[in-house]
Amino acid sequence: MSNPVLNQNNRPGAFPVIGCSIASGLLLALFNTFGYSISAQPLTTSLVSQARPAANPNTVNQRLMGQWQAKVSASGQTLTFVFGPNGKLSIVLPSSSNPAPAMELRYRVASTSTSPMQIDMIAKDNKIAPTIFEFTPDGKLRIQLEGTNPGVSRPATFATNATVFDKISNATTLPPNARITQTQTPRR
Question: How far apart are CA 7 and CA 92, in angstroms?
Answer without folding.
Answer: 18
